[in-house]
Predict the structure.
Amino acid sequence: MTTYWNFPAATGGLINSINNAGLETFRGNALDSLTREICQNSLDAVKDKSKPVVVEFKSFQVDTNKFPNKDELLNVFELCERTWRGHNKKSEDFIEEALMILNQSEMRFLRISDFNTKGLEGAKDGKLGSPWSSLIKEAGSSNKEDSSGGSFGIGKSAPFLNSNLRTLFYSSYDITNYTSHIGVANIMSFRKDHDHITLGNGYFTDNENSTAIPGQLLLDDTFHRKETGTDIYVSAFHPKEQDWENEIIKSILYNFFITVFQKKLVVKVNDMEINDHNIGQLIGELEDTKENQELKNYFQLLTSSKTIVIPYPAKKYKQGIQFEEGEAELLLMNGEDLNRRVLMTRKTGMRIFEQKNISGSISFTGILMITGANMNNIFKQMENPAHNEWSESRYEKDPKLAKEIYTELRKFIRDTVKEKFQEQITDEMDAVGLSDFLPNANLDSGQSTNKTESLNSSIKQIIKKEKKQESKTTSRRNKGMEIEDVEEQLAGEYGITPSGNEGGSNGETTTDGGNAGGGTGNPGGDNELNPNEDGEKDKKRQRKPSKYPIEMNQKYVCIDKANGKYRFIISAQKTLSRARLVFRVMGEQSNYDLPIKQAITNDANVTVEKHTSNMVYLNSLKKNKRFMLDVDIDYPDYCVLEVELYEN
């Protein structure tokens, strides 16, 4: 048997450079994409569902002379160099590095092996549509069953990004007991001779049809497969991340913690194993970043006795599509400092994305698991190639139907969160009789008339409350809160989005902007001369503070009712070197000035000069540059505020 590298000719077809659409999908984070796609593919090929799939990542060094037909591939890259010289800088750089690697004495490989899987069925005859053909020979093809995770056939590109030669070897022991191997070089077209240019993809094979070579590939001296599964050898594995083991471990914890916890997956990274026994400890030991804290909350949700599990109700749609009750489950938990999001997953349990804008006032966290075959199939077809988004337009059969299905799922999540947790919050606010005075949560978009919520300023009863000292946790959370967090809270609670109308006029509240407002601009100028000033015409005229409001965009949200803390997002419609904000409470009989106790900004370029009575004096406001301002007011309950900006 003679093996060789076969690069089929294009024969008038497409000429490919080093750029590849499939690879670009995963370029943002090569190791994370590798981990996600490999584990998902292995889970889709599970052999015995009563046992976990095992995936192993193992690096090793090999003598470069043991690289299959190295000299032949070296000659291919030399032909690539002659073909692309002076035509494509990116291709030239890639070829230069490849030639250097192949001329070194040693090369590092990454072996990725899975167990309790079916292997690459179809390798013996290379039948079109078989798992072997879909992975090795077909572009953009996937023939997985409806309950699988993948659907585009693009995920197989991810491992190539981790090879500096763009070359992989596949070795398989399938469920028919057939063993095979093949190499795939995903490089660029090159001129073989005067008359022939190749397609760019080459195969290490023993025949012109580029089918698999019988027998296993023995590149790793320490490993010989004795059970069904697949081995992928990533050549010239030199990731940018030096601590690549830790990067893969973090990716597993972040993306597959549900799957590992449910005993469906075990992952080995060199000598480290991640399983259902130690995943809780591994997550708990992660450094205390915002992302890791959210992961810890999600994992706590899986294990807590306080977790509420709500099955998705049965649904029927046109075209005979229907979901049985429980095809999805929503896990919910409320408590302090939670992220107000729901993590969305499908059959394999891999993280897809987090659903936001659910509620701005309820501190909760949740996980939605779509496990039913019918529902999984519909949402799989809405998923993008990177498996981190759902879009109704991707459901080609009927995008309108997909929109209806997805809208109902989001409504189910939002309504369930409010049904389970809103009651106690409403009760607390009703105890002081203020729920009727909160901004309209419905924000009826069908009305175009501006509305103003008002507060009766007459005092009926004085209730003395003992102020609790603000905890360090709360202070730390508020201090680190970003503008995007405030906008998310506004969107979840009141339907106010960054794309909504943030502005207003004369301090009124707009129907689609929520608690937004600003003063009316002065077309005649922002400053006026003081006619009582003495002076000569050749001397610089003195200005006095403007009495006309400056237009601005602003939103606000209450972050601590008991201590009168409000957070504002503000942007002025012109640059102001010195300015003042004037605060008032809006009431039914009258508006009255609001005493300011403290004001702090998050922008290092905007400074708070001072605050007196109901005014905050600021310096260095830039036109249309948003900044966040935390204001403490002397008012212990919710109120509707009017804020105006003046040049000082």
The CA atoms of residues 386 and 637 lie 46 Å apart.
